[in-house]
Task: inverse folding
DNA sequence: CTCACAATACCCACAAATGGTGATTTTTCA
DNA sequence: TGAAAAATCACCATTTGTGGGTATTGTGAG
């Protein structure tokens, strides 16, 4: 049987190199390419198919969540293992709902990574222990259903949350986008509601994690 | 002449592995250990000396900036190359002021990393192109003097900024720390002044980058 | 034994964000 | 084309944060 073709999507060079080296110590795996963001990944996959993608959630230009959603449409059969430092429930849920098979935390060991890779290649769901814990806790405390539909943000909401994270006031955002300050407030309210946060601090963290700033 | 002894301080396993593998392809370098945070680094160095440390700025428990300051006291001769994704001026300046010799951005190439390592081992300052740009811009726009003294935060201020990032209101922070809400406001003001930010959003980003949340 | 600084607290005024409700227009897509 | 979703705006009231100044106490470094 032929080797498993793998693509690594991670903007951090040392991290991508590390993942590649770990995989190439195992026979049967071939790392076909390393890409720096979701756009590059989709461009590469357009003509060169692969079996598995190790995908960092936090990437510039096009992050893991958006990429996952696009992948699910374009390449439904490609297995994806999320490999990231982000441990909050919302990202785990988002990735799984969008179609990732596993979620590996970069704080884990080398052996764990290989376990995770083997599991997802068998089609099994894999979650790092800390990720699993995070999901359980999140479920109990916030009553967010991990199997529920992913609540996406609209493009306007993304513009707004980005400017909030850049320390703009509502008036400044309104001026920048040529809309009323009241409209900005409305957007902020639906953002806070969708992301289930209490204040701007929550919005800022979300935007930072997604590399929208 | 003997091999250069290197320690890698990075909580991200793939990243640490990647750095180790890149260095071990070059003869004359020996990676003595990989540690996950500043505390572990100092503990390791207490009895086992080394020549060079590759240090991620963003680490749990004890981050790169605090670690750098301690290193400067305890092991003044050990050369440190910061290796991180953080590209904002404040972190570059902080690390350099605290004694780092170089600052390498993880978006750089493998060749650049080796260049950086060779440069700092010669005792030369190295800055990734994007980091240099960030310093120049920061200097021009904010009139922050990169050669000025590093303004540290007090322990109380660190508690406060952490709770701000955790979406606590001033009243909640006051209740949690058993102090007056007015005192919290005073602390926030000096925080914003020291970190040169306009709103809570700036505080949140700082706390997140330093892994204080 | 000072002197600087950290931590505490209060005053006032104003700016900004949050929360609720309702509504209109435009866009998108089935 | 018709319903749903997105984007827009306007009120309201209330809470929260920002910005200025001032002052006291304790503590640690020189």
Result:
């Amino acid at each position: 049987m032929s080797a498993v073709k793998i693509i690594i999507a991670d903007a951090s060079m040392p991290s991508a190199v590390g993942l590649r080296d770990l995989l190439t110590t195992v026979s049967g795996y071939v790392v076909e390419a390393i890409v720096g963001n979701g756009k590059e990944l989709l461009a590469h996959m357009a003509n060169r198919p692969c079996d598995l993608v190790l995908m960092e959630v936090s990437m510039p230009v096009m992050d893991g969540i958006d990429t996952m959603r696009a992948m699910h449409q374009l390449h439904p059969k490609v297995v994806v293992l999320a490999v990231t430092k982000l441990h909050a429930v919302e990202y785990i849920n988002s990735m799984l709902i969008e179609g990732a098979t596993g979620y590996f935390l970069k704080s884990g060991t080398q052996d764990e990574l290989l376990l995770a890779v083997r599991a997802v290649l068998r089609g099994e769901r894999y979650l790092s222990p800390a990720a699993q814990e995070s999901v359980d806790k999140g479920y109990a405390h916030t009553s967010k259903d991990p199997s529920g539909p992913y609540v996406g943000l609209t493009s306007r909401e993304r513009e707004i949350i980005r400017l909030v994270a850049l320390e703009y006031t509502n008036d400044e955002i309104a001026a920048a986008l040529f809309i009323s300050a009241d409209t900005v407030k409305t957007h902020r309210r639906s953002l806070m509601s969708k992301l289930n946060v209490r204040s701007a601090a929550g919005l800022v963290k979300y935007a930072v994690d997604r590399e929208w700033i």
Notes: DSSP finds ten helices and six strands in chain B. Residues 155-209 of chain B form a domain with the Arc Repressor Mutant, subunit A fold (CATH 1.10.10.10).
